[in-house]
Amino acid sequence: MIEDPLQHTVIHMDESDWEKPPRRGTALLVITIIVLSSLAIAVTLNPRMLSLRRGVRVAVIDSGITPDSEIAPRIVAERSFIQKGNGYQVSDNSTWDSSPGGSLHGTYVAKIIVTESPDVLIVNAKVVTSDNEASVTAIATAIRWAVLEERCDVINLSLGGTPTHDDPVGEAVRWAFRRGAVVVAAAGNGGDCGLGGSSIETPAILPEAIAVGAVDAMGVPYGFTARGPLRNGTAKPDIAAYGFYSGSEGVFFGTSFAAPRVTAAAVQLISLCEENGWEWTPGMVKAALMSSVNHLSAPAYAVGEGLLNADAAKEYVSRAPRRDGLPLVAWVTPSKGPWDFEQWFVNVTSKVELTLFTSSNDTWQVSLSGNAAHWTGAPSVLKVNQTATFQLRVRVIDSGSVDNLRLYVRLSAPGYHYVYSRFDFSADVAVAKVAFEIAHTPWFADSMYGQFREFYRLITGAGIAVEEIRDPEELTLERLGEFDAVILLDPCARAAHLVNGSYVRVSFRSYSQAAIDALVTYWSSGGSIFVVGLDNRSIELSDLNDLLIHFNVTLRYDHVPSVSIVLNGIPSTQLVTDLISHPITESVTGFDFYGCSMSTWGNVTVLAQVQVMARNENGRIVLENRTVLACAESRSGGRLIVSGTNFFLDNWGIQGEYKSATNDRLAKQAVLWLVHLLG
Question: What is the pTM of this model?
Fold first, then answer.
């Protein structure tokens, strides 16, 4: 599936806030990101509460709050950031709920916090208009105002958006964490029952934020709740809570309503510390909440460490050792591994990202044990200032399969109880080894954890090992020589960057001449390459064609299909049925296509084509056959496949969610052919 960030440059509330979503989810409340530089702010304060300074202060950065008898006494400060200078069309000085979508989103969030932490003080920061718009400038400025001027201890962000490589809100969250504020963020509602793979939104993707997923009253994750892990395998969400609000207005669902429950629990922990004269830090609060959950049967990439248990967290903090009045609490994620969809192989390196959360700035010792320890690389010492991420590299060396392997990763520091992660796995013998080359795509969904998770499972299920190449510097002939095939996923995809206050598409990363030379030599020497492209709306065709021209292929500046209907953010595909007989296409009745066609010459074999309307040299509209899938072989046995689409390879395509029932067959046979296990 295309995953162009500029098609998703929105900060939004929960798409299911107003009713239960359909299977794919519907964006029922969308707040467009408007990025303009200005700090002009209108201020309205509640004069009745200015003298009230005690209590834990929580910033609700949302659509405003319409106070009732329960909320009004708790509000100590209010400010509207909806100003023209912050990128809005019209200024709004009111701090009452703007009722986006006709419902009181911010008010419901505040009610949950007040109900579950009755001593809380609310700081109302309004950033969302009645037209569902919020600028990232306003959100980032509201965060800084809440911390600097209003001394907020906790910030609740029941909103989020697609991650980009310029993230003012993310930077503000990191800053707030460093200043000592707990930041709680909704994980997002793009989970699509897990079909999309990585779908955690920003700012919930940040280690400094507590990412909250949503479960029902039975502890089952809602289909809409965003899933992890992140693109590099980092564990998210962090924790789960009940994802609904029930009031006289009705029942509403979404991670928006799970986040304030965690916010309320954070308030309870902070209150406990202050009542006892103890210190606290945002790292301590996050570690305590994650270490005290009720465990759920769903995988951690759906519900984090488990279901929020505020009472257990308070008990844990009360019993924790203390240093200078600070409870010493730590937690590491993932606490178990590998992920249930991962398959590890002998003589192949598997990388694991672990994140440690602690109360303080300390040096931690990392020790390994178990019968897989001698095959694992990890740092022995880790400097941690409340949060740090480090990598394990597991490579089982053996000539045959090795079963019942176990690895313990133990982390310890003076004064703390130790924490550990445990990995139970087997390592199989691979019949071949391929690389997912994602070093030239910026899209957060492009990985074996994201929209190509089902493709990864399809390949590994056939006994083929998969590693990811994430660094362009890895594209050397020596590194490529480790693989039977290299799959270039969405190469030269465009990134979304902030330029003069607006998001624009820019080329993310082109292939260097050294990388092109390495790929061409690799293929000429017998290696295989699969180029998975898209059309010029999403990738920089000129840059990609600088590589493809060496293989007698170039992608064209057209769109197939020429007309597409977008439903729930997913464009309709064209079912390609004009297939040429080949081992790759055997028993494939058709495959889904959304992308561009290609020009080929020389020894390139056409595998599939479509008819498009085009103008001939006389200016007349004619039907023309155009190639959409092709292959070639080098004299040394190197094999090449080029596709103008990624749709038949993404999770939806492999699972038959578009039009074709044979996408998976085509994908599998393509890889088997590349590694010389077919044809």
Answer: 0.91
